[in-house]
Design brief:
The protein is α/β, with parallel strands linked by helices. The chain folds into 2 domains: 155 residues, Aspartate Aminotransferase, domain 1 (Alpha-Beta Complex); 249 residues, Type I PLP-dependent aspartate aminotransferase-like (Major domain) (Aspartate Aminotransferase, domain 2, 3-Layer(aba) Sandwich), CATH 3.40.640.10. The chain is 38% helix and 14% strand. It has 15 helices and 14 strands. The strands form 3 sheets. A 7-stranded mixed sheet has the order 4-10-9-8-7-5-6, sandwiched between helices. It binds pyridoxal-5'-phosphate. InterPro entries: 4pyrrol_synth_GluAld_NH2Trfase, Aminotrans_3, Aminotrans_3_PPA_site, PyrdxlP-dep_Trfase, PyrdxlP-dep_Trfase_major, PyrdxlP-dep_Trfase_small. Pathway: Porphyrin-containing compound metabolism; protoporphyrin-IX biosynthesis; 5-aminolevulinate from L-glutamyl-tRNA(Glu): step 2/2. Homodimer.
């Protein structure tokens, strides 16, 4: 495969955009090589600037759960655009999407729309602090909650890929209010509560972690966090930017049957347009401006084009009774068959999977926290990545990221993927 045009585009972008990209992981720094510039996508496939096509396992990092450029979503966006792009006033559309979500997601009464997952998490933390009157928060090593200052402490994802978990520019004052614990280690969390009595506003957690690769909650981790929050008057925030509307319509709250006090959304909720949201019970959400004192705002929040894309996507998800079952089946087949192939090649690995989120760690031991994810053989992952890329299969370009299966990936795509993996040789 040739990447002449991508290569030229990257050289040019490099002059005008920091590192040539608008989000770090896209630069392929972790896996090496030239980042591929895409120009179009439809269904299960993306096409790059050199006209190579790929089966897509990122799906825009989750939003394209129905596959790319779904015809009904496309039509809805086109139609909406004719009525105007943005008004800076309330619209009926905002209530429509809010109602759909509140009525079908457990345990939330109100939802506020923002424009990214970062904004959602940042705002949820401010609200938790405003509501509890406390400053400190607990986050987990390897969990990513967007790039706002409070969270860039041992964050996963791009930050892990680049090996500088503490970003320059985050002040010591901010960092001191973020307490860290190991994922799946509720004992450490209990210790933090003991050592910081009456000071912890909230725990924020990815209920299934996706930003250190896919890591599942184990040994009643989420239930234990719920209990610790209740005992200590802190709020439990589920960052469902990845898991929301992906594991189930009601997200991880529904799947694990654990109630969060605040929930953040992004990715799928915007159907491919820039949307985030945070939601909770009335007693908490009533603290937000203009009703309450906790300030939060956005010029393009609730933007009609973005709401239309999100609403149409969520309605399509609701309509398809078998969607989650089918996604699960696709991922299960990939999980099982890839495992068989790698075993036959004596390649040590672990596949972590929940529903349609999965990733491969080339590691002999189970991976249940960031340290274990970091100990996997990432250079082997990079080999694997490039073998697949060269054969028209696009995985996330880092061993610290999750694959997102879309409904457009069917038998043909699975077969092709397995055929390519059968030819993989680790050199
Ligand atoms: C992607 C992600 C975010 C950040 O969302 P952006 O839209 O990129 O700002 C936050 N939390 C989790 C769990 C994510 O996966």
């Amino acid at each position: 495969m040739l990447y002449q045009r991508s290569s030229a585009l990257f050289d040019e972008a490099y002059q005008y955009i920091p590192g040539g990209v608008n989000s770090p992981v896209r630069a392929f720094k972790s896996v090496g090589g030239v980042p591929i510039f895409m120009k179009s996508a439809k269904g299960a496939y993306m096409t790059d600037a050199d006209d190579n096509t790929y089966i897509d396992y990122i799906n825009s990092w989750g939003p394209a759960i129905l596959g790319h450029t779904h015809p009904e979503v496309l039509e809805a966006i086109q139609k909406q655009a004719e009525s105007g792009f943005s008004f800076g006033t309330p619209t009926e559309l905002e209530t429509e999407i809010a109602k759909l979500i509140v009525k079908n997601v457990p345990n939330i009464d109100q939802i506020r729309m923002v424009s990214s997952g970062t904004e959602a998490c940042m705002s949820a933390i401010r609200l938790a602090r405003g509501f509890t009157g406390r400053d400190k928060i607990i986050k987990f090593e390897g969990c990513y909650h967007g790039h706002s200052d409070s969270f860039l402490i041992k964050a996963g994802s791009g930050a892990a890929t680049f090996g500088n978990p503490n970003s320059p520019g985050v002040t010591a004052g901010t960092a001191k209010d973020t307490l860290l614990a190991r994922y799946n280690d509720a004992e450490q969390v209990a210790d933090l509560f003991r050592h910081n009595p009456g000071e912890i506003a909230a725990i924020i957690v990815e209920p299934v972690a996706g930003n250190m690769g896919c890591v599942l909650p184990e040994n009643n981790f989420l239930q234990n966090l719920r209990k610790l929050c209740d005992e200590n008057g802190a709020l439990l925030i589920f960052d469902e930017v990845m898991t929301g509307f992906r594991l189930a319509f009601g997200g991880a709250q529904e799947v694990f049957n654990v109630k969060a006090d605040l929930v953040t959304y992004g990715k799928v909720i915007g159907g491919g347009l820039p949307v985030g949201a945070f939601a909770g019970r009335n007693e908490i959400m009533d603290h937000l401006a203009p009703k309450g004192g906790v300030y939060q705002a956005g010029t393009l929040s609730g933007n009609p084009l973005a709401m239309r894309a999100g609403l149409t996507t969520l309605e399509l998800i609701r309509k398809d009774e078998n969607l989650y079952q089918n996604l699960n089946k696709t991922a299960e087949t990939l999980d099982f068959e890839i495992g068989k192939i790698l075993n036959s090649k004596n390649i040590e690995h672990r596949i972590n999977r929940k529903g349609s989120m999965m990733s491969i760690f080339f590691h002999v031991n189970a991976v249940s926290n960031f340290e274990e994810a970091a100990n996997a053989n990432h250079s082997l992952f990079n080999n694997f990545f490039h073998h697949l890329l060269a054969n028209g299969i696009y995985l996330p370009p880092s061993g610290f990221e999750t694959w997102f299966i879309s409904a457009a990936i069917k038998e043909n795509e699975i077969d092709r993927t397995l055929e390519v993996i059968r030819k993989f040789e680790y050199s």
